[in-house]
Amino acid sequence: MFDSLSDKLGAIFDGLQKRGALKEADVTAALREVRVALLEADVALPVVKDLMGRVKARAVGAEVLRSVTPGQQVIKIVHDELKETLGSDGQGLNIHRAPPVPILMVGLQGSGKTTTSAKIAKRLTERDKQKVLMASLDTRRPAAMEQLKTLGEQNQIATLPIVEGQTAADIAKRALQAAKLQGFDVVILDTAGRMAIDEDLMAEVEQVRRIADPAETLLVADSLTGQDAVTTAKTFDERVGITGVVLTRMDGDGRGGAALSMRAVTGKPIKLVGVGEKADALEDFHPERIAGRILGMGDIVSLVEKAQETFEQEKAERLARKMQKGRFDLDDLSTQLQQMRKMGGMKSLMGMMPGMGKLQKQMDEAGFDDRMIRRQEAIISSMTPQERRAPDLMNASRKRRVAAGCGLTVQEVNRLLKMHKQMSGMMKRMGKASKRGGGMPNMAALMGMGGAAPGMGAKLPPGMGLGPGAMGPGGPGMPGLPGDGDGDGLPPLPPTGGAGSGRKPKRRKK
Amino acid sequence: MADDHPDRDPSEGETGEDKKKGGWFKRLRAGLGRSAANLGGGITGIFTKAKLDDDTLEELEDLLISADLGPAVAARVTEKLAKERYDKEVSPDEVRAVLAEQVAQILDGVAAPLDVERGHRPHVILMVGVNGTGKTTTIGKLASKFRAEGKSVMLAAGDTFRAAAVEQLAVWGERVGCPVVTTKLEGDAAGLAYDALVRAEAEGIDVLMIDTAGRLQNKAALMDELSKVIRVVTKKLGQAPHDTLLVLDATTGQNAVQQIDVFKDQAGVTGLVMTKLDGSARGGVLVAAAEKFDLPVHFVGVGEGVDDLQPFDPQAFAKALVDAV
Q: Can you give the residue ranges of the SRP54-type proteins GTP-binding domain (chain A) (predicted)?
């Protein structure tokens, strides 16, 4: 299977680094590989050519050849150029206009317009305290209007009442009228999916655009798009005049070449990215992070932000104090496990860490799975409060009781206890070493998977210092588990209940 | 240079294409018109003035890459061409013929009709794929096709996650006149599949099609959920699902290969359907997929109409892709 782009470039530059001094031919050969990697990452050909031209001009210069670390130099150049192509930092939505401010959503079929409409509405409502109305102009796909209506109901966003038999233009007028009369700040117009070459439908959306005069016309595009990204982005821009792009499914394992392509051919900013199926899975676009992720430099900024959002400040401070004193009991571990799950599970975290791409792969191969986190939580919640505070109490008979209580084996209970012991030992050392108490222990060592993790110096919230330690791959066929720390009780663990699913309604509310 | 291609002007190319309902080949060509114009035009541009030399071959490779064939397949096709024609004068027509031939050759083995008359009653078809590829629409089109053939059809609205996905399928059920088994939003997809099987068996239905929620192939939990649906179906009815179709979006780039790989591995995909070939996307990744996997391609979607789902014809596809005569 294809490696991810960061793996590819990583391998290329590993090779470069090992050889020390570079010849011009080496750089050229490496750049050829970069080119193939970018193409496999679905960056559109004209964009690749342009990019490679600029990279080569700089890479074969003295800058690289005389460098002590030529590999690093090449990475830096490619990174810079990627960043430059991706454009400037997250420009928010332009809603500074007399209300109601229209936002028009356009794109191909199945790119995610309706879901994105709801996500944007939710974001504007919650973050910007705007009163938002959504209207579906999709008169074609069966139940498209019901879809938007349902999403509105789920997220407490108003939607325009459905009137059968109206044209898209009629609905647009009605939406604007309703928004004006009812005092809405923003009105989001969700249009039907259309092919860029469908003359009739492109004319329709042009008409809607004239009627609505939107402050933002957002092209919603699938980040998994191939070479067609160029045609689609260009055509929509020329016909409708887009003001920005929203890239969906950035949580997939596509390598996001479409981001580069679309930005390059339209010059329009990528304003937002969709990163999941939940209504709040919408993030600002940060070119330097994406460029960094492409090059395997991790996405540490997103990680910290995510941690800050999830981690309750008070709990974090309490934990930090405890860690400084070298006290870290099973209750604390349980809290950490919960935080980790809230942040999207191990895999999502690992994906964002610098140099963790390989480790993530190893985890996959080892059958590591977020379900393990739930099992560990289950073990802890099967203990008495005393046992959680003083794990040394755990003798053979207590272990048997706990194992029976959570439906796991004594070995698994032992493994958890061992892991806790290692962690608390490490934290004791850390507490002595650092008075801040927020340092990051060596993740890879904690994971017991070998391999140092470079660039781990970034200061992270205390909750991040977590490794599942000596956990092995979990056995299949888990019996039922008792309730977890939230008290909402886990159902008998089906394969469906993985931590990353996000499809349980109760999870979505969190 | 790739940048000089006439097709870069999007106002061109499709103007002459009529949207009338013609033969399917004609419509596929109309749909593929843009990609073909691009590829064909590019090749013409190259070959009217140049011999087949290294530069020309590189340009040719680039053109194939632009059609989403992927760098590896593009390189192989170019290499083969180089072996046969290097340094010779080659006319544009010849190149297109060779290209079409090669593409068709790769695709030849994977063209296979979907046979639902293998003695199963009900014949169970499970539709899987990434979000937004067109699973529900494809089910609607297939249902209409089976109904036209006089078969009794039942649909199971197994996408219990996306808002109004159930309603969407229900509309299709009404259109083509077949029962739709549903459950509540957030309901259990595996349980629904089971209920549908019981009903289909009791009512002596010929074809049962089970819709599923779209899911990205890298979401382990969601893939597990799909495996569960399949386990339940298989447990209830021996060899079912008899067909598990992966719906691919033609606009998807090389990630489609990854999609096939994971869905094949975890959902036991038995065949492919490629949708949205009527847009500007070229679907060349199907060639890469054909090389890599031994999976039949049953249908291609070339429009939003009920009749726009057509059996996959490699010759026509290859010819339309490179605009050969």
A: 269-282
